[in-house]
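A protein record pairs a chain with a discrete description of its three-dimensional fold. The following entry can be read in just this way.
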Amino acid sequence: MAGLGACASAGGSGDGTGRAALAGSVSQDPSQPGAASPSGEPEAEIDPGPADPGATPVGGEPWDVEVSAVCAEAVAEEGGAGIDEVAQSSDGGAVASFWANGDRSVVCDVLAADDGTTVTTVVPSGADGGSGFEARALRLGSSAVRGGDGSPTAVRYVAGGRLPWRVDELGYAFPDGHRARAVFVESTEGSGDVWWSVGYTATEGPLADPATDPADVDPLTVSVVGAAAEAFRLPWEDAQRSE
């Protein structure tokens, strides 16, 4: 693979994020796995709807060695030197590569473009190990997909990281109506860690234009369903990691 694309970087403010309980959801004390109590009156009902692919564990070895090589370079450029690749998963023409060392982790998404080049998006998670999901951990990295003349033809959006607790389904409802469910994969080095990733390539509309004013875009909605259930509404400006 050739033609390494732009990489997203971590940052941004979570002041504008919103959180609402799912209808029929339960809340959980993360310090006691499996323990749950009824939530209060739900404020929102979020249905991720049909998506591709379903939330099915995928991956395993042998890995795509070209992806490993591209991501090793991209992760190092983002300050991730000294961490190792621990898993890969595939999702609709792209491969997500997961890198970790202790509480540090990075997700590297490599999309094969129609012209034979690749678009690489790196999403550093910073320090892991929290007791639950936070809005900042759900933010999207993005990279422009460019045509032969160098002009942007689409935008690739990626989110991912290490699961803080068991999750049955993680769904993204994008402002343009696209819905995607996360793909899960387990680490291969025996740690038992499970990783998730969501990828979406917007080819038309406001999300496909890097120059779109975030104030003109509806919020991103993320639903997390497992031993606990939560929904997050992130204003589009806060839904994206700052460049």
About this structure: Residues 18-239 form one domain. The helical segments are 65-77, 236-239. Confidence is low (pLDDT under 50) at residues 1-57.
